[in-house]
Design a protein that fits this description.
With 216 residues, this protein is an alpha+beta fold. It is built from eight helices and five strands; from the N terminus they run ααββαβββααααα. A five-stranded antiparallel sheet has the order 2-1-5-4-3, with helices on both faces. Helix 6 packs across helix 8. It is elongated and about 65 Å long.
Length: 216
């Protein structure tokens, strides 16, 4: 370890959202924390779900974290450990480096294996059904850009067709509006693929897009 620079701390600061993002993804039974490796104060600078180990910002780095740092792996194998109150944790440690490849921080993830299964599943499932938002568009895990566009068109089309508040004459235009909001029409051949998928002419697609630009 060494004294960290302002640039090093800027990198760690930018990494803080990763802590919150992982915690939001896996829920209250997974602790996520960011260690600074500043030699003057190697400690936690960001933590989510600290109730799992009872720690908070400012808590010192653990001996095991230092061992993982010295093991030579930037991403450790997962390992089992115990929290102070005896919970079994499945953990992983990730080294954060600066542009000079100096280790400046550690991202640590600790999942509570003793948490009740139903509670774990409850935290993993969304609290609200996304369909409650009529403008929600499911993520498309496609293998090509064409497949992604077609999947997006079908998803948006299904939403719009199920929306009884829209008159039939306005539905194709609404589909084009929503696809445009998703950025679909920035992709190559997207207008032709959308026209084919919606069974309308490509000129109609372009007309809707022109109207959108005029009104914005």
């Amino acid at each position: 370890m060494r004294e960290l620079s302002e640039t090093d701390y800027a990198i760690l600061k930018a990494s803080e959202n990763i802590v919150d993002g992982i915690a939001a993804m896996y829920g209250e039974h997974t602790e996520v924390l960011l260690h600074s490796l500043d030699v003057s104060n190697p400690s936690i600078i960001k933590i989510a779900n600290g109730h799992i180990t009872g720690r908070s910002v400012g808590a010192p780095i653990t001996n095991l974290a230092l061992m993982k740092l010295n093991a030579g792996q930037d991403i450790s194998d997962s390992y089992l450990t115990k929290s102070p109150d005896g919970k079994t944790l499945r953990s992983i440690t990730i080294v954060i480096r600066n542009a000079m490849q100096d280790a400046i921080g550690l991202l640590c993830i600790n999942s509570n294996l003793d948490a009740p299964f139903q509670s774990v599943m409850a935290t993993m499932l969304p609290g609200l059904t996304p369909q409650a938002d009529p403008r929600f568009s499911p993520e498309t895990f496609a293998r090509s850009s064409d497949e992604m566009m077609q999947g997006s068109i079908e998803s948006v089309r299904a939403q719009v067709m199920a929306d009884a508040s829209l008159s039939p004459s306005k539905k194709n235009r609404e589909i084009v509006i929503r696809l445009n909001e998703l950025g679909i029409f920035a992709l190559k051949d997207s207008a032709q693929i959308a026209a084919t998928g919606l069974d309308i002419s490509i000129h109609t697609i372009y007309r809707y897009l022109r109207e959108l630009k005029t009104s914005s």
